[in-house]
Design goal:
2 copies of one chain form a homodimer. Helices cover 71% and strands 0% of the residues of chain A. The first copy, chain A, is mainly α. Chain A has a single domain, classed as Orthogonal Bundle (Tetracycline Repressor, domain 2). Chain A binds a DNA duplex through α3.
Chain lengths: 209, 209
DNA sequence: TAAGTAATTTACCGGATGGTAAATTCGGCG
DNA sequence: CGCCGAATTTACCATCCGGTAAATTACTTA
């Protein structure tokens, strides 16, 4: 082996394993920086590989994103689905859902932001697929938020929309905080959320001036 | 006037007016797409002018961002400051603050996201200045959230941090919803928030399994 | 009407990024 | 050993973006 002039050639990593490595790195990068902000070079560097390889394995940047999205979406959708259960909203449903999400996300928390990326090229397949997943999850949540509003007598459909929107973003916020506090376990997070909920309750029974 | 071969030359728009036009367009673009996502060409096109002119008027992209940030930050900080008032947190403080923010934002709602842009080049002046404004506002909010937690007996500093974080992002979420519903007046928004708060209260008095 | 200044564009440059075609090396198998 | 296919890189290209120097036109005033 006389000083290889080129570093090309296989490194002995089997195809499937590389696939997984790339997928993992890409999910982190997309989650942390968004589709637009993530760079293929950065993902490649993280794996210790060249940009070109990503293309050979997954095609377009958008294709790679979709490849990351699908498992994450499936996992989260399943988690929320079974946390809601067959029966309607009960008082502890929100916390159950949160706990399910935290658990599903442990070991790859940024994955949440792959699903809720706002920088996807509009009109593309990535945006479509992500929107589908979000819609499925939102549909589950919609039942819960609607129950809430009905209980307080509001029938305004915009109220329902806003509440759905707020709930969804609240989860994103909590996950974002969680990402910045890696030592917190999923259970610890759920308990913290329970405390925050009760704290927030103390400011509720007051209307506008 | 024999068919001008070049479109260069003044269009008769006085300097100060152009400045304002550019500032307005840039604020919208930065607010809608973030610093990283916004392009100088797009801003220039919106004004009907060339990229180069932006540089001549404001310098660097980051300089332009700062020029947009300062008035927005000042306006919002002032609004929150006087909505909180000299006396501590009262039950209706949150809604008062929200109303102040909505009012300050009317006529340029995306401006909020200039202040809370997450895509600023780290280490730069823009990030520093924005962080300063956010810190000032957060400091005001911190008093309020701390009061909430004390009332419920929690002394965990992480709880306080998380609550501050959640409150801040909740405002962002509400503004984002508002941006998508342009017909809603600031007052209508505040009233909607009041309803949402009471609705959210119905899910509070429940701890984890 | 000619000079001078203010406003604005044209024509570039360098760097980063997504993407592609072709070459190169390594591992296993006859 | 020699061949073949799998894994991976090298070397490019086009595009977009932020940024700069120099030219060009319109407005104003003497």
């Amino acid at each position: 082996m006389a000083t290889p002039r080129s570093k090309a050639g296989t490194k002995g990593v089997p195809r499937e394993q590389r696939r997984q490595q790339i997928l993992a790195a890409a999910t982190e990068e997309f989650g942390a920086n968004g589709f637009a902000g993530a760079s293929l070079a950065a993902i490649a560097a993280r794996v210790g590989v060249t940009k070109t390889l990503l293309h050979q394995y997954f095609g377009t940047k958008e294709d790679l994103y979709v490849a990351c999205l699908v498992p994450v979406g499936d996992r989260l959708l399943a988690a929320v689905e079974d946390a809601m259960g067959p029966d309607g909203t009960t008082p502890d449903t929100p916390l159950r859902v949160l706990h399910a999400i935290f658990t599903a996300l442990e070991g790859g928390r940024e994955a949440w932001f792959v699903l809720y990326d706002t920088s996807l090229p509009p009109g593309g397949e990535a945006a479509r697929r992500a929107a589908q997943y979000r819609a499925s999850i939102d549909r589950l949540a919609a039942g819960g938020t609607a129950d809430l509003l009905r209980a307080t007598g509001s029938t305004d459909p915009l109220d329902a929309d806003a509440l759905k929107y707020v709930w969804r973003d609240l989860v994103s916020t909590l996950v974002r905080w969680w990402v910045k506090h890696p030592e917190q376990s999923p259970t610890a997070m759920t308990q913290r959320c329970a405390r925050l909920f009760t704290a927030a309750a103390t400011l509720t029974p007051h209307l506008q001036p």
